[in-house]
Each structure stands twice: as C-alpha cells, then as structure tokens.
Amino acid sequence: MRALILAAGLGKRMRPLTNEMPKAMVLLKGKPLLEHVLQNCKKAGIEECVLVVGHLKEKIIEYFSKEFEGMKLQYVEQKEMNGTAKAIDLGKEFFGGKDERFFGKTGEDFLVLSADVIVPEKYLQQLIAKKGFDAVMLAREENHPEKYGVIEIDAKQNAVLGLEEKPEKPKSNLVNAGIYKFNKKIFSAIAKTGKNPLRGEFEITDSIKILLKENAKVGFVLCKERIWDIGSLEELEKANKIDS
Predict the structure, then answer these.
(1) Can you tell me the distance from the alpha carbon of 158 to that of 153, in angstroms, rounded to the nearest whole number?
(2) How many domains does the chain have?
(3) What span, in angstroms and rounded, lies between the C-alpha atoms of 137 and 149?
(4) Residue 14: which domain range?
(5) Taking the model in full, what pTM does it have?
(6) At 48, phi and psi to the nearest 5?
(7) Closest among 43, 41, 242, 208 to 139, alpha carbons compared
(8) What one-character DSSP code corresponds to residue 20?
C-alpha cells in the first residue's frame, strides 16, 4: 500500500512559527508533525509515500530526502493553494494507472493523509483492510457535530450515504477526520469538481459527493481514539502538554 501526504499548507494560524518553516515541520513533542505521520504510516505497513509540498518545500525535502525508515519518498509541488481536491489530483500521475515512473505499480488503492493530522496506526491499517469500496473515510464522533463536516451513514451496510458541511440539524454525530483511502475513480470525480462557493477552493469532500451521486461505494472507519488535528498554535500547545 502507498500513501499521498498533503504537506503544502501555509499554516497561517501557526504564524510566526510558519514564517520560517513549513507547517509540516512544526515540532510536536520534539519531532516535526510530518515525522509523526510518516512513522505511523511505516507502522501501518505503508511502503511508499508521495509528499505534496509547497511553502518552503526545500526544508521538507532536505530533512526527509528520498527515504524514511525504509519507506521510499517522492515529492510533487502544489504551486497554487487551491484546495484539497487539487492537491490530491497531483497524485494522479502516480496513482491514476497511467504512469509507471513511481516505483512500478499504479492504479491501486492509496491512502490520503494530512501532515498535520495524526491518528494511531491501527486506524490506517483498518482503512487499508477495508475492501469493496471506491473510497473509505476516517470518521470520528463529536458532541457538537454541527461545527464540522457531518457524515450520514447506513450502519447496516457500513456505508456513507452523504456529507454535509456544518448542518443545522446533523444526521449523525460522525464527522470527517480528513483521512481517506481511494481508488483511481477519485481522479475522475476531481475532474468534475467545481470550486466550492463557500470556501472558494476545490474541496475533496465535493469530489466524494460526486462519487456518491455516481453510485460509487463509499465506506467509513470509525476512530475511537485521540486524533491530533494541529491547525493552530493553540492546538499545538495543547497537544504538547498532553502525555502521549
């Protein structure tokens, strides 16, 4: 199994730290956020990763180079910060089934992770093991799901029925954790994805909605343990204070 890791973010809410380093290189418990993510990928059995880089990308490439703990690394640059769908679409040449430049195997399922979202490796393993779906989302429970992207599910089929961003009346208490497994159908959906009118970017959740409209099978894995989602200085400070 291979993974695409999104590490191009500007980290505006983590300034001034990110004035001189990429968000992915901000330290959590003495190690860059991205190093935590890569270590969990390694523990989950990931063999090869493509890193989507952008802001101060040289610092990431210099630190990690072409290999990390036996995992092969490849880099692709996101020159325009225009959304998660466009970032993931940069993986098409590696995972879309048409290009053999990346370590030989293309067209297979692959994981998508963010450099600032850290989950226990066992949930990455569960995503990998989930079969029979075109896309699988990692979900988490929230007491106030209306503040997040809510996932509507069919519990019997263990399937996702719909997604809704910050709904007034949530259809479940499950929200999107921002980690996925896709097959190459996602690239066709991304090609049909327009700019989100609220955020002004191309969002991968809109691409997943297109998959659902086209009767693709979308599943989910529920994470019942702590997820580190480090989006601000406050969240970083809180995470650094809590024992792992």
Answers:
(1) 7
(2) 1
(3) 12
(4) 2-241
(5) 0.89
(6) -145, 140
(7) 208
(8) S
Mean pLDDT in order along the chain per 10 residues (244 residues): 91 79 88 94 94 92 92 92 91 70 58 93 94 93 84 84 85 90 92 85 92 92 86 80 67
How many Cα atoms sit within 13 Å of 243 on the Cβ side?
A: 0
Q: Which helix (H) or strand (E) holds 121?
A: helix 121-129
Q: Are 123 and 138 in contact (CB under 8 A)?
A: yes
Q: Which two tokens stand for residue 187?
A: 């690239």
What is the residue-wise DSSP string for 172-197? Answer: -SEEEEEEEEE-THHHHHHHTPPPPT
Decide if 9 contacts 55 (C-beta within 8 A). yes
CA distance 86 to 80: 9
**Hey, CA dihedral for 27, 67, 203, 144, is it positive or negative?**
negative
With contact defined as beta carbons under 8 Å apart, do 14 and 26 qualify? yes
Cα–Cα distance for residue pair 206/91, rounded to 1 Å: 18
Token reading at 143? 């007491």
Q: What is the CATH number of the domain that holds 175?
A: 3.90.550.10
